[in-house]
Amino acid sequence: MTMQTEEKGMTARPGATDSIDREFVITRVFDAPRELVFKAFSEAERLAQWWGPKGCTIRVSKLEFRPGGIFHYSMQFPNGAEWWGRFVYREIVAPERIVWVNSFSDEAGNITRAPFGETVPLEILNTVTLSEQDGTTTLTLRAGPITATEAERETFDSMHDSMRQGYGGTWDQLAEYLAKEQVNV
């Protein structure tokens, strides 16, 4: 089933542009069927078990897995820090594609600056595609800033190595989760 929507109410900041000319791309192959990988993204109890940086606990505040819906969550770190984030889903094509805008947020779900940098883009457009071959699933994530200033785009570009490392850890957790789920089937 294909579902699409456009996000309403977005306003550009002075000097900001909605184009993505320099995107971040990361690909990973999982030893799991595409349907299971898709479910890992689409259900709150599943997302809470693998999403986010290694070592943090995810608490799902809200998951509306539909175009226009929101995934609002907190990341609780061992040092006691708590960061909030949110996705606003733009497009969902089960089981092959999920598009969302990711942002840091406050506890109420309002967009906020990243806790680690004033020029980190406020909004990142993410597209995950899933393709299956012989029981394995290739996940490709493409991400890039939207409504970003030039300084924010430059910061995003400078973060690619760190993002590769961060998503690598997140995908490791997803692989562990998928392996456990297949054993339980």
Notable traits:
globular; 9-stranded antiparallel β-sheet; alpha+beta; 37% strand; 26% helix; 4 helices; 185 residues
Structure report:
This protein is α+β, with helices and mostly antiparallel strands and 185 residues long. It is 26% helix and 37% strand. It has four helices and nine strands; from the N terminus they run ββααβββββββαα. Strands 1, 2, 3, 4, 5, 6, 7, 8 and 9 form a nine-stranded antiparallel beta sheet that branches. β5 and β6 form a beta hairpin. The protein is globular.
Order of helices and strands: EEHHEEEEEEEHH
Give the structural class. Answer: alpha+beta
Mean pLDDT: 90
Q: How would you describe the shape?
A: globular
Q: What portion of residues is helical?
A: 25-40%
Uncertain parts: 1-15
Helix count, per DSSP? 4
Count all strands and give the number: 9
Task: Please report which band the strand proportion falls in: under 5%, 5-15%, 15-25%, 25-35%, 35-45% or over 45%.
Answer: 35-45%
Radius of gyration: 16 Å
Structure summarized in a few sentences:
By secondary structure, the protein is α+β, with helices and mostly antiparallel strands. The chain is 26% helix and 37% strand.
Break the fold down into its secondary structure elements and pairings:
Layout: E1 2-4, E2 24-30, H1 34-42, H2 44-50, E3 57-63, E4 70-76, E5 82-93, E6 97-105, E7 111-112, E8 123-133, E9 136-146, H3 150-158, H4 160-183
Antiparallel strand pairs: 1-5, 2-9, 3-4, 4-5, 5-6, 6-7, 6-8, 8-9
